[in-house]
UniProtKB/TrEMBL annotation:
Subcellular location: Membrane
Keywords, alphabetical: Membrane, Methylation, Transducer, Transmembrane, Transmembrane helix
GO molecular function list: transmembrane signaling receptor activity
Domain of life: Bacteria
Stated name of the protein: HAMP domain-containing protein
Alphabetical GO biological process terms: chemotaxis; regulation of DNA-templated transcription; signal transduction
Pfam families the UniProt entry points to: MCPsignal (PF00015), PAS (PF00989)
Top-level taxonomy: Bacteria, Pseudomonadati, Pseudomonadota, Gammaproteobacteria, Thiotrichales
Native organism: Thioflexithrix psekupsensis
InterPro entries documented for this protein: HAMP_dom (IPR003660), MCP_chemotaxis (IPR051310), MCPsignal_dom (IPR004089), PAS-like_dom_sf (IPR035965), PAS_fold (IPR013767)
Keyword Membrane applies: yes
UniProt entry tagged with the keyword Membrane: yes
Amino acid sequence: MIIFRRLQTKFIFILGCFMTFMLIAVLGTLVIVNSQTSDAAAIGIAARQQTLILTIQNQTNTLILALESQSSTTEKMATLSHSIALFSHSLQALLHGGKAEDTNGELIELPMSPALVKEKLLSVEQHWQLSEKALQYLISPHLNLFSDNYYDALDILRDNWVAIFESSQQAAAILEKLSNQKVYTLKIILLSTLALTIIASLFTLWLGKRTLIRPMTMMIHAMQCISQAEQIDFKRRLPDFGVDEVGDVARLVNDICEKLQFAYDETQASHAAMSRIKQALDNAATGAFIIDTRETLIYCNKAAELILNKNLKENTAESLINQPFSQLKTHLIGTFPNSLSAITHSFSTRLTLAHTELACKITPVLDQKQQQLGWVMEWRDITVEVLIEQEINHVVTAAAQGNFSARIQVDNKRGFFLTLSQRMNEILTANQTILTALNTLFEKMAAGYLTETLQGDFHGSLAVLMQNINLTMTKLNQTLSLIQHSASEVDEAADTISADSDVLNAQTNQHAASLEEIAASIEQMTGSMQQNAAYSQELRQLAQQALEKTQQGNTVVNDTINAMSGIAESSRRVADITTLIDEIAFQTNLLALNAAVEAARAGDHGRSFAVVASEVRQLAQRSAAAAKDIRHLIQESTHRIDRGYALTRQSETTLGDIQQIYQRVLQMVQDIANSSMEQSEGIQLINRAIAQMDQLTQQNVTLVENANKTSLLMKNQANQLNELTQFFKLNDHQ
C-alpha cells in the first residue's frame, strides 16, 4: 500500500499495532464477558427445562388421577397447558435463538445453540413432539378414558419422560462446559496480547536498524560502483529493500537497468531478424517488391530483378528502385487499382509483362497498431501454366462438342501437368471407345438385330453403363419374344371364336326353324278351334286331333328349350374366350410399354424401336377394345337368350295346360263352348310369345354375325402384330 512507503508511516503503524493489541484484548474481554452472561441465561433456562419436565410429569400424573376419579380437572388442565407452552417456547429459543422467559419471568435474548448442544436439543425436540401430542390429547375436550388413544398416549408419555429429561440434562452440561472454555480462551487472549506487545517492541528496534542503516549503506556503495565502472553491465541488480523510500530508489535503478538491457537485446534481435528476412527475400524463388506509403518502389529481390531484366529493354530493375510505382505499372497489362492506398486487404490478380504471364499478389504491411507501413508485391511466372491451361481448355471444349479425337501433348510436360494430361487422354479414349461401341450397337438395333451386345474392357461408371445396355438388350429380346408368343395365342383364340360363332349361328338358324314349326302348329290349332265352334258335333274327333297337336307342340318346345340351353352355354364359352383375349391384349400392352421405356433409354438410336413398340401398343389397345365389344354383345345375347328361354318355358307350361284342357273336353262335352273360348285365348298368348321368340332369334343371329366379324378383325390384327415383331432378329434361346 502507498501509505507504508514512508518510514515515518511504518513507525506510526507499529505504534498503532500496540494500541490495536490493547484494544483487541479489551474488546475480546467484553465480548467474552457478554457471552458469559448469555451463556449463564441459557444454562439457567436449560436447567429449568429439567425441572419443568419433572413438573409436567407430576401435573400429568395428577391430571390422570383426577380424570380416573372423575374430579374437577379444569384448573389442572390449564396449569398443565401453561407448562407445556413454556417448555415448547423455551426449547425453540434454545434451538434457534430468540426471546424466552427466565426464572424471574423476564424476557431475555438467547443466541442460537452450538452444534453439540443443538444435537441434544434436537433429540429433546423429537421426543417432546411425541409427548406433546399425547399431552394435548389428555387436555382436549374429546378425551375418552376408555379408548385406545388414551392408553396409547399414556404409553408414549411413559416411554419419553426419561429420554427428554436425560437429553435436557446433557444439553445443560454441554452449555456449562462451553462457557468454561470461553473463560479459558479469555485468559489465553490476555496473555497472548502481552507477549505480542513485548515482541513488537523488540521487532521495532531491529527493524529500525535493518530498514535505515543497512539499506542506505548498500545503496551508496552500489551507486558508486555503477558510476566508476568503465563498462556498464545492465544485468547487475540491487537487492529488494522493501516498499519504503529506500526500496523505491532501488527498484527505480533496477527498472532503468532492465529497460536498457531490453532495448539493447531487442535492437540486436531486430538487426538479426532483418538480416534473415533480407537474405530470405533476396534468395526467394518468387519475385518480391516492397513499396512504401508514398507508393515508391524501395526494394526488389533477385527473382524480381530477373523477371524485369528479361522483359524490359529500356528500363532495368536498378533504374526502377526509389522510383514511383506508377513508372513500373506502365509496363504491366491487367486489372490493377488506380492507387495502392485502395488495397486494405490481400489483393490477387493476373498481369502480363511483355510475353510473360504473372500471378500477382499485393499485401498491405501494418504495424502493431494497424498503421499502414507499405505494401509487399509478389510475382510468380505462370506462362507455362497458362499455355497448358489453354491446351486443356481446347481439348475439353472439343469433347463438350462431341469430338473425342483430340488429345493433349505430353512430351513437353512434367510433374502434375504430365499426370493431368495423361489422365485426360485416358478419359477421352475411354469415352471415344464406349461411344463407338454404342453407335455400332444402335445401328444393329435400327436394322432389327437384337442379338448384339457391348463388349470391351470398361471400368467404373462405363462398366455399369455396359452392363445396363446389355441387360436392356436381353430385356428387349425377352419382351419381343413374349409379344410374338402373345400374338400367336391371340390368333389361335380368334380362330376358336370364329369356329364357335359358326356353331352358334347354325344352332340359332335351327332354333328359328323350330319356331316356324311352332307357329304353323299354332295356326293349325287356331283353325281347329274355329271349326270346333262351327261344328260342335265333331268336337270329340277334333279335340283328339288338337291333343295330338298339343303333344307335338310340347315336344317342339322341349327341343327349343334344349337349343336355348346350348346357345347359352356357347355364349358363356365365347365370353370366356373374349376375357382371355382381353388379358392377352393387356399383357401385350404392358410388354409394348416396357419396350417403349427401354427404347427411350436408348435415346436416338432406339427411336425406330420406339415406333414399333408404339404400333404394337396401339394394336394391343385395339384388340382390347374389340374384345370388350365382343364381351358386351355376348352379354346382351345371353340376356336375350335367357329371356327366350323363360318364354319357352312359359310356352311349355301353356301347352301342358292346353293338353289338360283337351282331356277335360273329351270328358265334358257339355262345357265345350267355354273350353273353346279359353283355348282360343291361350293360343293367342302362345302366338305372341312365339312372335317374340322369333324376333329374339333374329337378333341373336345378328349378334353372332357381329361376333364372327369381330373375331376375324382380331385375327387380322394379331397377324399384323406378328408381322411387325418378325422384323426383329432375336436370340434362339429367348
